[in-house]
# Entry
Amino acid sequence: MAGVRDNQGQYVFGLDIGTRSIVGTVGYQAGGQFHVVAQRIKEHETRAMLDGQIHDIAKVGETIAFVKKQLEEDISRSLTEVCIAAAGRVLRTVTTHVEQTFEAEQEITDEEIYNLSMVGIEQAYEEFQSTEQSDMKFYCVGYTPMRYYMNGYQIGNLSGHKAKTIGADIIATFLPDDVVDGLYKSVEHAGLHVTNLTLEPIAAIQVAIPERFRLLNLALVDVGAGTSDISITRDGAIVAYGMIPVAGDALTNVIVQNCLVDFDMAEHIKRGATEGGEITFTDIMGLPQTIDSETVLESLDSTIDHMTELVAEEIKRLNGDKPVSAVFVVGGGGMIPGYTEKLSAKLGLLKERVAIRGEDVMKDIVFDTDARKDSLMVTPIGICLSYYAQSNNFIFVSFNGERLKLYDNGRLSVSDAAIQVAVPNEDLFPKRGHALTFNVNGKSRIVRGTEGEAAVITINGDPADLYTQIHSGDIIELTPSTIGEPAQMELSGLPELASPLRVGINGKIVELPRTADVNGTTVPAFTQIKSGDDIIVRNYYTVQEIAKLLDLPLGGQIKVNDTKAVATTRVYEDFTVELDLKSGGTSFQDLPEDDGSYQDMKDAAAQRAEEEAGRTDPDASEGGDDASEASGSARTKDSEGGAASKASSGTVDGTSGEPTTLTLTVNGRPVTLTGKAEYVFVDVFDFIDFDLNSGKKKIVTRCNGATAQYMEPLKAGDVIEIYWED
# Structure
């Protein structure tokens, strides 16, 4: 029946699965009227249902199949989809307000209205779940928009209007899973698929109380066999639903006891009592008996009184502890003589204000077949009409072998099924291997692990993803995602170690590989970084370290930047070193321009850095440009053993004494040097922010207007200029 709403004239099949009987109706809507083309009734042969609850799924399914077959013969076509209604057993209701705001004012279509209702249902369900204390699982079986709002103002119908904000007051009804599940399984047993599920009072009110009457404060009571379902209207909307588990079967049970007959014979006697006169029957002893209608009704008087008392109390409760203006009664159980009179008395209403509704409310129903037109048929026809009003169907799918029931909002996808079975997010999306977290020059850095494989999803054996639409009967298989490899990185992979340290040694420019201390210890570049490591990238060598790296002797005089120095003197970028090689060892002039050792290290580091580039999260790292800049800058000397280290090791020329402070003017700003007894020009770099690795050709150093040497002594008040010259 797909497309029934869009193509009027196609048949709608509705089933009223009652406690006592099953009523099947087939019809179509055209020209504002609903046409009934076929109708069949079949009573249960056993007590397969009690109080609106299915007790024997197979027996109920067989009765449904019988009704289905008769209707198929009547209309000469097969029926595969059906609309059904649930009785209000253990009914819960939630009233909620929902709004939707658009980016700009737009014309409201039926789709927007439908989406608004769906959001309202989901919101109502969340509210219901937060307050429900029982362990039972509930499903939404019906909803009714009570009022619509456009830009904050109440309006009767949103369709066609232009608005930026739309809203609605929605009343949603919920029933336990076992009630809904029993209905679905019985229908499936008969070879049918549920295309719409509603609540019996919602279905009944479609016929019994037209919209033009809903401005009044009215009650509709659908008295079935097992339950009496109640709905209340006011201010143009349905405002409440309720139920009591007492109805026509309570009367039948009294007759069973008084007349010593089985349930079916008691039903025969009850129906006869509504018609008047004498009733003949056979008791359980096989003896023929006769009883008059008045005697039967007298035996039922106290039970009717109890039933109407319960209904009146529920009506008042739903209506704010006050009676309604009038009551309409439908259903076979309410046809017993005396029911409406007693109910009017309990509510304090004139007896004319409580009436049975039947053929008089079916003016918009066209009967193309010889069908009953009494109050018993109000709900079956309303079930068909509910199909056009709303679609709140459930579908069943298989998810990794588990049978799921999902509320069908028309846009169900694999993700909805995954949420239903609580699949963890980490099983849906690729999982990264463990990250590597460490510090470089005092700044936190993270290298992420590799991504694993995403979850593998199939629907009926075909590849799918989380957003693939699903339908009833689909078989969904999901293989969880995998975790990637943990992050790994060698020290040489740090970008701070990629560029060499260039110094002049005995007139030759030598590129020295940069080094780093890990947790206070200098380690090789191929060392694997571990989580929690504290890495300090050094931007200097000592004279002794240079000599050792180049295998040069340290005999004789040492000069750094033309100033006397010692083995522990630090050598920074573009410094010059002069070593006396006459005392023995290899002559520096005989060394090759590039012995390849540094280039090999640089190539290996570049390759590893490229491999790790895809695993480094730039957003999570505070390295980046700042870290690269810091590799050749004097401003990180404190973390690299700068001023503090120099203070502990004495002056550059090896002298020692009590630490003093010295205030100078550097590039127009006062700078105070601390931690040493004496200071030379190069010490200034430990206290200023100056990039020694800018890549320009020449650094200019001036002291008191004259060119300054790096090892030139300083005194208080000196005016110093340091800058790069292109």
Summary: Confidence is low (pLDDT under 50) at residues 1-8, 584-656. The chain is about 25% helix and 30% strand. The domain at 634-726 is CATH 3.10.20.30 (Ubiquitin-like (UB roll)). The longest helix spans residues 293-318.
